[in-house]
Design goal:
The complex is a heterodimer of chains A (112) and B (114).
Chain A (H helix, E strand, L loop, with lengths): L2 E4 L4 E4 L4 E3 L1 E4 L5 E7 L6 E6 L5 E4 L2 E4 L9 E3 L8 E9 L3 E5 L3 E6 L1
Parallel strand pairs in A: 2-12
Antiparallel strand pairs in A: 1-4, 3-9, 5-6, 5-10, 7-8, 8-9, 10-11, 10-12
Chain B lengths: L4 E3 L2 E4 L5 E6 L6 E7 L6 E7 L2 E4 L8 E4 L6 E5 L8 E8 L8 E2 L3 E5 L1
Parallel strand pairs in B: 2-11
Antiparallel strand pairs in B: 1-3, 3-8, 4-5, 4-9, 5-6, 7-8, 9-10, 9-11
Classes of the chains: A mainly beta (112), B mainly beta (114).
């Protein structure tokens, strides 16, 4: 069945460091891929998405590229800020908008 | 635009008791989702509605969980009877139909079963 695997946390970085959170997936067909973020005390919100191979999603300085050949959708940011401290979830959705599957989440701590 | 509303925000019950959660999606959103998020894990889809019909309930423990979406708007999720392992945050989300399937999440209901 479909699944999402993301790197375990927590990840602790200093401000302005480079961030990578790895995400790989297993799926049949051509799923859409997402990164959601959950800030402390807030609900889940969409950070970025990509709907087909080689698409790059970007938002708030974060980027992720849909790599079908490596079944990956790694999240990157060139310079993190303290305000980026949150839990990040990688997710996939089957074609047609059915059955979203989330990874376990990666907690990011950014120190000033 | 108002977001997804959920109530209650917190609930503590004893095992074998019943509990119900309520969700009001964003106006006009045809698709509604209920997720269970156990501490330290990602959300797991329990049930997905398209208007008032069920699209997917394959991971809903139907012996104790039930959900309905009357008139294709509000939805309730019920657990009867609750078990200790049901302790989790229950998230409701909604999305519009069409090619943009972005889901908008509510704040969740944190359930503790003692």
């Amino acid at each position: 069945g479909n699944s999402v695997t993301q790197m375990e946390g927590p990840v602790t970085l200093s401000e302005e460091a480079f961030l990578t959170i790895n995400c790989t997936y297993t799926a049949t067909g051509y799923p859409s891929l997402f990164w959601y973020v959950q800030y402390p005390g807030e609900g889940l919100q969409l950070l970025l998405k990509a709907t087909k191979a080689d698409d790059k999603g970007s938002n708030k300085g974060f980027e992720a590229t849909y790599r079908k050949e490596t079944t990956s959708f790694h999240l990157e940011k060139g310079s993190v800020q303290v305000s980026d401290s949150a839990v990040y979830f990688c997710a996939l959705e089957n074609t047609g908008g059915f059955k979203t599957i989330f990874g376990a989440g990666t907690r990011l701590f950014v120190k000033a | 635009e108002a977001g997804v509303a959920q109530s209650p925000r917190y609930k503590i019950i004893e095992k074998r008791q019943s509990v119900a959660f309520w969700c009001n999606p964003i106006s006009g959103h045809a698709t509604l989702y209920w997720y269970q998020q156990i501490l330290g894990q990602g959300p797991k889809l329990l049930i997905q509605f398209q208007n008032n019909g069920v699209v997917d309930d394959s991971q809903l423990p139907k012996d104790r969980f039930s959900a309905e979406r009357l008139k294709g708007v509000d939805s309730t999720l019920k657990i009867q009877p609750a078990k200790l392992e049901d302790s989790a945050v229950y998230l409701c989300a909604s999305s519009s139909s069409g090619t943009d399937y972005e889901q908008y999440f509510g704040p969740g209901t944190r359930l503790t079963v003692t």
